[in-house]
Amino acid sequence: MRHLKYFCILFVITIVFISGCGNSAKTSKQHEGKIQITTTIGMIKDIVNEVGGEHVAVVGLMKSGVDPHLYKASQGDIQKLEKANIIFYNGLHLEGKMIDIFKKMAKKKTTIAVSKDISEDQLRGWDDGTEGHDPHIWFNVKHWITATKTVRDELIKYDPDHKEDYQTNADAYIKKLEELDQYAEDKIASIPEQTRVLVTAHDAFGYFGDRYGIEVMGLQGISTASEYGSKDVSELRDFLVANKIKAVFMESSVPKKAINAVVEGAKKKGHNVKIGGELFSDAMGEEGTPEGTYIGMVRHNVDTIVDALK
Ligand code: ZN
Q: How far apart are CA 273 and CA 295, in angstroms?
């Protein structure tokens, strides 16, 4: 009996000691070190760096040229997610092969889809009539401003001591995004209405088309996981020929085979379509280049589209 009592006291002391340690570890992480954040696509990493500034250390899982629809987390990725204090991902099934991992992580730590505050009536449906939504929200810069506010609010929630910094940083970034939004609107409007059609390999640009007033046609469905068929190729080819569309576009994270088939098909029908250049759709450019940032990527796309179609 005495042994049991002794054991109980020891047990309580141990618990107090362990939880005490846990608290101080968390405090030191918040105040001395940086908040460890892991993101999926580079565009989200960009937001977190801009808003978090000196208070965050951000790891992005998906590098330049990587297709998020097909991306499977490696063992190293799982470790980076395990180590993070906060995880930010896009959501809306963009990271289709990682959904279960996020569910698991959400039980342990702050795991946030940056699309969560965009109201449902602002989201595009899938073309195939299922209940899902088009995940490519970053191509409406206004939606990306909403995502920026979501990141800001989550950082403030996690680390209220630096609330003012997060607010100031977010305000500055949002101002740049508002300028970018205006830039895209003005530039796209300068393309003659008749040829204001954006043809790409997969439907990443639906939000872009809605926001900036350009018709968008893709060969694949919304996800690159869906295959295109010969019927899609011939339909798109006939459309190009009939409307004398001058250019189609490659995408950095999608194989070039599909769009080449359409260009070849149009040529056989006597209409020369040029490749208008490469657009960044689901991944940004190489780190250290202008296109390696979200703003640079959108500007590159707008300029490439306008130069080829105008
Ligand atoms: Zn996509």
A: 29
Distance 70 CA to ligand 1 centre (A): 10
Evaluate whether 40 touches 60 at the Cβ level (below 8 Å).
yes
Cα(85) to centroid(ligand 1), Å: 27
* Type of residue at 201: A
Predicted confidence at residue 233, as pLDDT, reads 80
pLDDT at 114: 98
- Whether residue 36 contacts residue 84, with contact meaning beta carbons closer than 8 Å, is answered with yes
Q: Do the Cβ atoms of 139 and 208 come closer than 8 Å?
A: yes
> How far is the centre of ligand 1, averaged over its atoms, from the C-alpha of 204 (Å)?
5
pLDDT for 254-294, tens place per residue? 767 778 888 999 999 999 999 999 999 999 999 999 999 99
Structure tokens that stand for 102 in this block: 């996020």
Ramachandran quadrant class, 93 (left: phi over 0; alpha: psi -120 to 50; beta: rest): left
Output the pLDDT for position 224: 62
pTM of the model: 0.84
Domains of the chain: 31-184 (3.40.50.1980), 186-309 (3.40.50.1980)
Q: DSSP 3-state assignment of 110?
A: strand
Q: What is the pLDDT of residues 214-223, one digit of tens each?
A: 999 887 655 5
Distance (Å) from CA 217 to ligand 1 centroid: 14
Backbone angles phi, psi at 231, to 5 degrees: -65, -40
- Gap from CA of 69 to ligand 1 centroid (Å): 6
What's the gap in Å between 242 CA and the centre of ligand 1? Answer: 27
For the chain, the first-to-last Cα distance in angstroms comes to 90
State which H helix or E strand residue 100 sits in. Answer: helix 99-106
Nearest to 125 by CA among 115, 116, 136: 136
